[in-house]
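User: For a benchmark we're assembling, each entry needs the component sequences followed by a predicted structure for the full assembly. Here are entry 17's components. Please fill in the structure.
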Amino acid sequence: MPDGNNTGIGASVLRKEDRRFITGKGNYTDDINRPGQTYAYFLRSNVAHATLNGVDTSAAESAEGVIAVFTGTDLAAAEVGGLPCGWGLTFQNGDPMIEPPHPVLAQGKVRHVGDPVAVVIAESKKQAKAAAALIKLDLKELPAVVDMAKAVEGGDLVHDEAANNICYDWAIGEKDPVEEAFNNADHVTSIDIVNNRLIPNAIEPRVAIAEYDSASEDYTLYTTTQNPHMIRLLMGAFVLQIPEHKLRVVAPDVGGGFGSKIFHYAEEAAVTWAAARVGRPVKWTAERSESFISDAHGRDHLTHAELALDKDGKFLALRAKTYANMGGYLSTFAPAVPTYLHATLLAGVYSTPLIYCNIIAVFTNTVPVDAYRGAGRPEAAYLIERLVDRAAREMGIDQVDIRRKNFIQPDQFPYQTPVALEYDSGDYSATLDTALKNADITDLDKRKAESEANGKKRGLGMATHIEACGVAPSAVAGALGARAGLYESAVVRVHPTGSVSILTGTHSHGQGHETTFAQLISEQLGVDFEAVDVVHGDTAKIQFGMGTYGSRSLPVGGEAILRAANKIIDKGKKIAAHIMEASESDIEFKDGAFTVSGTDKSMAFGEIALAAYVPHNFPHDTLEPGLEESAFYDPLNFTFPAGCHICEVEVDPATGTVDVVNFTAVEDVGRVINPLIVEGQVQGGVTQGIGQALLEGCVYDDNGQLISGSYMDYTMPRADDLPSFNVATEVTLCAHNTLGVKGVGEVGAIGSAPAVINAIVDALSGLGVTDVPMPATPQAVWRAIQAAK
Amino acid sequence: MSNFQYLSASALDEAAAKVKGAQDGALLAGGMTLLPSIKLGLSDPSDIVDLAGIGDLSGIDVEGGSVTIGAMTRHAEVAGSSEVATAIPALAALTGGIGDLQVRNRGTIGGSVANNDPAADYPAACLALGATINTDQRSISADDFFTGLFETALGEGEIVTSVSFPTPDKAAYQKFTNPASRYALIGVFVASGSDGVRVAVTGCGQGGVYRESGLEEALGGDFSAGSLDGKTVSSDNLMSDIHAAADYRAHLIVEMAKRAVAACG
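Assistant: Structure for entry 17:
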């Protein structure tokens, strides 16, 4: 490991991208303006469910500044395809999931408030918006399907082809042995959970600008995405039939995503298609209120779960049935989230031998639901950790003891869970021990007494969590229904004077890749950190790549960079051997220099780079000029970051107000490249977990109207809602990548929500409270206290 | 957002004439409600008459047992006034908790009382302290001024010029904020003075700010938090929303009243 002053692996290097971000010089999509651009405004359904019998655009078309108005009918006539779903699931009997069309602009029906119906292209944004107000929709309103439990009973259908509004009814695990274990258990704990729907709220709203060059027949789409190549593939191949070499997708700086900018959205396709039709660039920027009703939402599970235990508190079996909300249409990754990213995680960090889980995906007249920071894994951790907490309380076992006695032990890796995944590494006692120490639990009773004296109730809750990330081994993903491979690519381009460009298929929407990846190359090639640049976010510059989600950028993308860098070293050795007239096998590369072993003959990395591009006497047959290498890395397995979160709360029982007074997170994310970035990522993830647990409530009324449609009603976490975090890491190395890294983007969001809720239950247990819902708003907590009286 | 005509005025009668002369005129004080409303398309005035150019509408005057605050005085100025903090500390504290820093630097007392938002803080202070709202035409007691949701006794084109607060013996305001908007989910202003005990509640009433007579009676006999133990208030005319149903609001009114009384010392 390098010392603290360097810029290699393990150094807390300040993020190099922050200079431009905090001085207002970031280049976000809305900062881009193209010559002669027009503006798009989308007219959206303001009802949740209706038959769309007609769209009268005549008044809008003749309004001032309007260039064109397009509807679903126009797109259908032009044979524009629907938005594709990237993952196919099956029913338990093997039948494929119900996959209804997802038109770019509504056709025949509108299915949620916010469903785009028409797009107006005008000279100004204001004119486009004003004209949209002149469009007359012939809608016959239908009863809205909002509540999942009612939706599956039949009646009104979101999609006629989906009986009982069910997209799929899928299961994993062996049902009968699980049932037998329950029948023979000493104790069964059960819980009903609502994992609340969340609205992502990236600070940068979505933006799309498209242009078409009629001379070259090239399209360019600038868009706010986490994965420009995937948008090019999905939109080009499935929606607009534009071949890749004629379609460039650019995602410049992206201001937050949390998953919501993975997906291919209707607006991207609509502006790209419209740009060719009107012969001018078309720009669309979401208004904040549009973001609430058009960005894919997260979570939204309705679960009944049970845990069977023996008399000592050893877990015998777990079973769960979950209704997972898909919303009005299938978003890009939606079907995979409750299944392969959730049900497969139900072992958690425990050696539960038998698990069965049934997932029923449900269509409703709400905004589509898809991956949101953690995507399925926070839901799994919430289910398990609430259940474990409750089992311990019911059986009178200590919260720490019940976890410890069920942990998968360090000598059990690789550990095959009963739900498909094989964990490669971990030490769950180590993260737990450090967390207990850092949370100072020995003085908890004293702190509880002090709170009690002030009329407050103090409680401590924990979660020991795991996630599967580094998404994902292509073979595994393919076997599970993914319609894409999930490798990652890298090009390491060494320039003649020795500086380096890294071309990565991942993309940063705030993670600090420009710093972390430069550290990797600085370490591996011995070049100056400042001499390394990261290039990403432009399909015209970058080889095909899969983008950033599922905490994959370092474990998959970083590993690809490392492998390309190693090829650079190999090539450098060949060049060094030639120039220094030595055998290639005698060349050593260390600290940025190629040395002939056992001699003082040595060439610096920069000298080799220059020689590679000035190959005056290279042997023609055996040594090519140039110093540029690429790698496509397909991981062998998921990575499995894990950790322990301990939350301490103080509740005011008179009002129901919850104050998070301490939050301790200890994460094992494998080798840490940049501790500063890791801590920041954990803080952000924990904040979103606290947000889900206490603040963020997405509320639809019975008519499918989004009640929490603005910041007046949707509570985002703010700095004064949060404590000063206590974050630490413990390291076990990933066993199947060279770097030993596991990924850190999501882990903070995995265990934080159950830790918070368990803490509230602990605080109020003396009042008889056994459950509080998320978000545990003051009113919800107060009601839980009243109900327990 | 539609286009509107911006008009300035340097005297009250000029402003009144301009707003009355407009097809659909609106007075602009701090603009902390009017401007967002226009941006969101909730308000669509033809003309906006800016009161900022009328110099004598701003200022704080403490004398003779009352605090008079000019209509265009910004919240931050009241919050930072040592004179107000000495005379009616509860009022200074209330203004320091309105909105956020930006709102406090722009928002005015005149705009707040004229708008009478059911979740605004100032109306509770006016009602509990028995304030007088002075306009370009007359003086109106707070009891008569706030007439309903976003409704006041102001006539068309009538302009608030100042608000006078009698100095109480004791007063305190307790706000329980809406977790999302940070407006008052409920706010209770308790005051004890020559006029007896007055308890004003904001954020709750279906008709906007109101006095909670049951709590006033209980406190009138014994001005202590303990005298409210076991007291309840009816939830019949209280608002319900996703953050607080009427019964929870009713509970919080008593709880916040207790805390306000306790804060009176």
